[in-house]
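Quick start: what a row looks like.
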Amino acid sequence: MRGWLLACMWAACMSSGIAAQRLSVAYALPVPVVASHGYLAEAKRVVDAAEQPAASWNGPRAGPRAESGKHVAVVAEDLRNGGILGVVDGVLEAAKAIGWSVKIFDAGGSPDLRFKMLANALAGHPDGLIVVGGDAHVLLPGLRPFAERGIPIVGWHVAAKVGPVPGTPVAMNVSTDPLEVARVTALAAIVQSGGHAGVIIFTDSNFRVAQDKADEMAAVIRACSGCTLLGVRDVAISRCEELMPGTTRALLTQYGKRWTYALAINDIYFDYAVPVLTEAGIPNGAIAMLSAGDGSESAFLRIRTGTFQTATVAEPLNLHGWQLIDEMNRLFAGESVTGYVFPVHLVMAGNVGADGGDRLLYDPANGYRDIYRHIWQRP
């Protein structure tokens, strides 16, 4: 999609008679793209496409039957994070369907506990390890002992790219395309603002994938000449409850009405920013919030009620849990992982009730559960 979008934006700029210099493939451009009608139209097409209901299943339909009697350890970065919790719920549901046992270890967002939980998981002699959240490269010292014992490892959001994680024993990182998620989020803000957004971006530099998403959003905003990137704030996800209220008050004081859009790498930032905005008497329409992941319950509620948040790129958290189990089963069977990437989906007011939205989550109605059961030959 990146190449197509850049080509369309280039054509739109040229057809409108606006002199444009060369566009960088990665949007790493100091050269601004003028927010012309053509540019906004193409951005809107991308956003509209991301809003569509879930398409028919385009993932794997064949694979090894279920390996029996397996025990899997799940090390979660922080179960207070709605995205991580949703994936773990999906893992538990899929494990029950395939006939495996699961033990969960929660690191609580603590650097020290991450390695303790990995050590505890290893002590339980699991057949496989699933890491949910965290950074595979940071966790490498704790992952090596699993690899040395021949224990396969898969993860969710443990690297900036989908697939095997180079330099680590993680055979598969399950995720939507993080950079595509970031681009769609930033483009949605541009479309909503008519090309005149004053943006603050929230990220967590402790995670490479989070920083890459923030960098991509910043590049897209900078590419819109009518938009202003006011700043990027580095706030640790694990300390959002502690830090976001003060950060939000400081931003209101510093930027006032210039701050019209908040973009974040995760919905959790808005959980603690919204009460401050409400307390300060900021109208719902004054600051629009859009998140490049993951589609938490609170995000769905805010979008449904029109409370500041206007969009989230909601990942199919439960589906990703099923995919993690399937990728692990393939490794147990000595086969390669699928490398499947689910398309980006943008939840906004117009589609918030579809594909599981009535249950405050994005759960694509594409029959993935039955398909995976068929692959595993399980009822």
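That is the whole record. The chain is about 40% helix and 15% strand. The radius of gyration is 21 Å.
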